[in-house]
Please model this.
Amino acid sequence: MKKINVTTSATLFEDISQLSTEDASLMQKAVEARHKAYAPYSKFNVGAAILLDNGHVVLGNNQENAAYPSGMCAERVAIWRAGSEFPDMKVKKIAITASSENSTVNKPVGPCGACRQTLSEYEINQKEPIEILFMGEVGQIVKTESLLSLLPFSFDSSYL
Ligand code: THU
Model:
């Protein structure tokens, strides 16, 4: 038996003004997408903006439903939109932001497990890392250099 350590690294930015021009502009687009979220039940609005390697930006936001489980997260709306519209394009990065109608979200909101799993398939297929940037409504932003760094011991098609 041996114990192993799984580590990950991320960069923490104090606010959007510390990001590169490209990252700040993508995050700003995620904010715009967040404003169009349909989240009347949770009142938790999430926006995602994906930058493709052809320079195209694909947006998504969470879409809820009165039958709660029928809703969908912003990240999966965006990545599936990108996959369906631009199947041959590589994803460079995704910016994510969340706000709540109940209180100010002032800490970074990372993608949920199901969204990480979904995004990982695209990273594996394209054989190039997808950068992930995530924030709340205000405050710090976390940036990781690859999706798989957020998903150790992940499940993939090699098991099937
Ligand atoms: N949500 C997202 O859009 N992305 C996540 O990664 C976490 C949660 C949405 C789903 C639901 O509409 C609301 O936030 C509350 O969970």
Observations:
- The chain has one domain: 11-150.
- The CA atoms of residues 115 and 142 lie 17 Å apart.
- The chain has three helices and six strands.
